[in-house]
Amino acid sequence: YSQCWCWNSSWTQEPAKDEKSEETKEASIAMDGEQFKSDAQTALELITDYHSSLPEVRVLSDVQPGYLRRLLPSEAPTQGEALADVMADVKKYIVPGVTHWQSPNFFGYYPGNISYASILGEMISNSLGVVGLSWISSPAATELEAIVMDWLGKMLKLPEQFLFYDSSGSLTGGGGIIESTVCQSTFYSLLAARHRAVAQLKKKFPETSDHELVSKMVAYTSDQAHFSASKGSNLAMITMRSIPSDEIACMRGDALEAAVQEDLAKGLFPVFVMATLGTTATCAFDNLTEIGPIAEREGMWLHVDSAYAGSAFVCAEFRHWMKDLHYADSFCFNPHKNLLTHFDCCCLWLKSQVEFTAPFGHNPASFMPSQRLCPELVADYRHFEVALGRRFRSLKLWFVLRNYGSSGLELIIRQRVSFARKFAAYVKADNRFEIPLCAPPHLGLVCFRLKGENKRTDQLLDMITGKGSIFMVAADIKGKLMIRFAVGATFGTPEAVDKAWKEVSECATELSQSVRSRRFDFARNRSTSISLAEF
Q1: Do 176 and 349 form a contact (C-beta atoms < 8 A)?
Q2: H helices within 159-206, ranges in order?
Q3: How far apart, in whole angstroms, are the C-alpha atoms of residue 305 and residue 284?
């Protein structure tokens, strides 16, 4: 594997299998500061060498399942090893099994980009070793998270109800938290919706058990929503209805209204609706202007998932998609998708801290500090989620926001949109391809396909994937199979877009020639068999 997956030519030389450095032989239990500096320098060189090599490296790993178990020992070492040897094994064994998400030739899924600022912020966070149990367990961890969430919320021009402090300096009752993923945020929002609905329904049906009330609850989301919506509803024990999207894959108010009225007639309780701004498959945008008033009228919790597209709202020209966001009870997006802050970093904002934290509120007085040590002016994040201990995630996001500033982040978003538009222009200029009407290009995503049967597009993607020099994935929307070209690599370039189109075009030509050749062979064989029969 090392022969196929070297980052530079010097790494093709494999060390002797039975040899270890002298440092390993005399490895001590504890590393001192000087040794850490030395090993850290080696690690930094490894990281920068890796990134500089990415444009020329095959994007996809070609290892087979179980490759690593066959290469590594079955047990951990008895004696400690020098980290220089461990890092050498990263090159030798780990990199061959990596799909290179940071490659400029990676266009699959949605981006999971990084930046050196984010890496440094995470390095310092890890060195502090903070476990954010409560404010007193590390005041800076709690307070920086609240500050950064307000910074980012203002950068996106979110309604003030989602910030900790409004423009007058007064607490709003809302605020933000950094979660691990959008999946987690959706699930927690469902729990908050269920808890609020039970409290409200108990006033109308005081004799009815909580279990029976929950069994009649209904949640709604688009048929284009991320699968985490149905996964979360299963965990929350709430029935989730899939609302048919329109011709451009958006959830509209009339379809939601019809489903709500149907369920009300059955004696069910609509309690939650999830709208998506930038769907997973095609980056479609649900219509908040139509959905919001329905949610408000029925007292449903409105959660808005903008995992990918939310980053683009730092740019004024893209904020029209979040018009009427004030109807929402919660809103989230992932800076780890398109805002240079590496995984995991999901920003979730809430209209009401009280309603969101109600299912989680617990004060284990036996070992936790009293509430008086957590002033009311800061968030008590242990009540915002299931986990008690929390990582110091805000530090890496703080590094990114300070290093790039709002203008730098806007520039990067606009650059990626321009790359996508360049690729879309290539597609439109080639009459072999089409951009389906159900998936118009948005932001950094272009969905395209070969004209004709889905099988042709499927074969094209298989051929592209097999070559491994670029990576894209498919989506099937309204019966049309499409290939998704998702721009977002930190080190992306216009040349990488040109290379990707060249690969797509050449594969399409190769596929067409292969089909013609098979048709010719079939016709020739058929002609021969007829002649023999006649003879």
Answers
A1: yes
A2: 182-204
A3: 12
Query: Which tens digit of pLDDT belongs to each residue from 209-233?
Result: 999 999 999 999 999 999 889 899 9
Strand partners, 473: 484
Burial of 175: CB neighbours in 10 Å, binned 0-12, 13-18, 19+: buried
Sheet of strand 433-434, all strands in order from the earlier edge strand to the far edge: 433-434, 445-450, 480-486, 473-477
The gap from C-alpha 308 to its chain's centroid, in whole angstroms, comes to 6
- Residues 6 or more apart in contact with residue 437 via CB below 8 angstroms: 247, 248
Measured in residues, the chain has a length of 535
Q: Which residues of 189-214 are buried (b: 16+ CB within 10 A; e: fewer)?
A: bbbbbbbbbbeebeeeeeeeeeeebb
pLDDT digits 0-9 by tens, 34-48: 889 999 999 999 999
First to last CA, the chain: 57
CA 77-8-42 angle, to 5 degrees, is: 50
Q: Which amino acid is at 407?
A: S
Q: Which of 292, 271, 296, 266 is nearest to 200 (CA)?
A: 271
Pairwise CA distance, residues 117 & 122, whole Å: 9
Task: Count Cα atoms within 13 angstroms, Cβ side, for 184.
Answer: 15
Task: Using DSSP, state whether 124 is helix, strand or coil.
Answer: helix
CB 282 within 8 A of CB 312: no
Q: What is the pTM of this model?
A: 0.88
Instruction: Specify the residue for token string 């809430």.
Output: 350
List all residues 6 or more positions away from 423 whose beta carbon is below 8 Å from its beta carbon.
446, 485, 487, 497, 500, 501
- Helix %, strand %, coil % for the chain, to 5? 50, 10, 40
- Name the strand (E) or helix (H) holding 330: strand 330-333
Contact 516, 524 (CB under 8 A): no
- For residue 103, give the DSSP letter: S
Distance CA 217, CA 299 (A): 12
- Helix axis angle, 394-429 relative to 116-128, nearest 10°? 150
